[in-house]
Amino acid sequence: MSSSRHETMDAAALELENFLPYRFNRLADAVSRDFARIYKERHGLTRPEWRLLATLGQYGTMTATAVGRHSAMHKTKVSRAVTALEKRHWLTRLPDGADRRVDNLALTKAGARVYRELVPIARDFEQKLLARISPQDRAALLAGLRALERAFG
Amino acid sequence: MSSSRHETMDAAALELENFLPYRFNRLADAVSRDFARIYKERHGLTRPEWRLLATLGQYGTMTATAVGRHSAMHKTKVSRAVTALEKRHWLTRLPDGADRRVDNLALTKAGARVYRELVPIARDFEQKLLARISPQDRAALLAGLRALERAFG
DNA sequence: TTTTGATCGTTACGGGTGCAACAAATTTCG
DNA sequence: CGAAATTTGTTGCACCCGTAACGATCAAAA
Q: Containing domain of residue A143, as a range?
């Protein structure tokens, strides 16, 4: 029936551009790549390094496992990011008195300075991103995301 | 003022878990990883290979550049995915009569078979994903995503 | 036609990534 | 207590990735 151009189309076809996993990835990639330019060009940070910086900036002192749990990163990513920031003296490891397997990670003054510099830039980026759509759409997006995070995250 | 625990917090801090680029990445990663398990375990496909398969399944015949444009992939990703699917005889290259730089890519019968097998599984995955949230939240999410795609994609 | 510039797709390269294996330390439990 | 199981973080490995450079081809301009 109808005028299909080849055998795989019609009801059997999937519209990739309407497929949710694809759409999420596309958006996340575009947004992330845009934002990553900031901390990459400015400080040569990778995304795991930025997340580590952001997590320690927010919470002050944590173990590597706690960083990974909070920032949704694999422990190897955290480990490598810690090594990198330590090498720049943006982070220090303090042995934990109660558990010798772990170190308590914290930003140095230099690290905290970079963090404080990036925070308003991040806020601005997010605000400008949301400003591109209407208040209604914005509210809908945030509500929908929240719901999916509750159900899936 | 107030009971801050360390100097980087308070107004200066950024809540990573509420930061939009982070939230998008987290969700996209979780959703994609979940869905990727299907085509990875079933057929050993990578994500670029799945996207190539999905694009050719949907459109029939395209050049590599067109595949990249439609599926938001870098040309090197497309190139490598084409090589991989060609090696499995799931895809053929036909020289273009008008432009000798390009090949017209199309799925073989074997490739189309895999595509037709995966489509209903993909649909099912998406449907089950959306079924986890309420109809209101679902509508909000889709409206919000659409708006952001219009403004940003 | 000849020159110049743009486009298409591939590949080497440096670097990021998850998996699995591992040592060290801690916790559990008999 | 002491053996077994678990947790924590690091590293080797194979693989994936984007950048840049490249040859080939096509399009535009002279």
A: 20-152
Structural domains of chain A, count: 1
pLDDT at B149 over 60: yes
Out of A25, A51, A54, name the one closest to residue B28 (CB): A25
Provide the angle, in degrees to the nearest 10, between the axes of the packed helices A75-87 and A47-59. 80
- pLDDT < 70 positions in chain A: 1-11
In a domain, B40, yes or no: yes
What does DSSP assign to residue A105?
A: E
E strand spans, chain B:
61-62, 91-95, 103-107
Residue A105 dihedral angles phi and psi, to the nearest 5° = -95, 140
CA of A66 to C1' of C27 (A): 19
CATH code for position B74: 1.10.10.10
CB-based contact B148:A133 (threshold 8 Å): yes
- Residue B7 pLDDT > 60: no
Nearest to A40 by CA among A53, A23, A25: A53
Per CA to C1' distance, which residue is closest to C26? A99
Q: Whose C1' is closest to the CA of A100: which nucleotide?
A: C25
Q: Which two tokens stand for residue A8?
A: 């795989």
Closest to B126 in 3D by CA, of B16, B31, B25, B29 = B31
